[in-house]
Structures are given as structure tokens and as C-alpha cells.
Amino acid sequence: MTGPEQTPPRRLHPLPKGLVELYGLLAVLFVLVPEWMAGGALLGFRSNRRGSDLPAAAAVWQKLPELRLATMGLADLRLLALEQGIAGYAGLGRDRLSARLIRSLKPKQKPQQKPRKALW
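Request: output the structure for the sequence above.
Response:
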């Protein structure tokens, strides 16, 4: 019996039935019971809430254009670029288009004046 095709199949020793049942019991105790308890706790939290299960859009999400642009697809980004009047938007990739849109969507800040030095 030489060669890989002539090797006899390996014989696995079966586990005793009691050991298999013990492993099943341990699986239930350590995995399924905590999952069941966590699910019950989450249902208790949900019953005390009012309104939608989904959180409302935060004010920060409305203020930061980066968050809004991250959720948009490339076609939506190109439509927004068309509305903003950005030239050459069709040839730009997602990253460059997002960067140009962020620059155009951010509120323009007034340049800060340098503090004047006193003459005395």
C-alpha cells in the first residue's frame, strides 16, 4: 500500500452519547439562554419608548455636508453637482466629486481680520 490513492480511509472514534448530550446542554446554557435573555431585555426597552424605532435625523447630519454626501450614490452626486453648477462633474470620480461638492456646500466664512496693533 504505497501512494496517495491506496491509503485506507481514516476511522474516527465516535464520541460517547453522554458526552454529546453534555456538549448540547452546554451549548444551550452558554449560547442560547443569554441570547434569549438579551432579546427579552431589548423588548422591555422598546415598550417604554414612544414613536418610531428609527432615530430621527440628527441636526449634525443636516449641518455637515460630508454626512449627506456619504449616503448618496454617484448618480445623485452628479445631479447635485449639476444643480450647484460645478463644471466638469461628469468626468470626476466619487472622491474628487465629493471634495468639490463639499467645498461648494460649506457655508462661506468671512475672512477674519487681523487684529490691529495699537499705535501707542
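The helical segments are 17-48, 59-63, 65-70, 74-84, 94-105.
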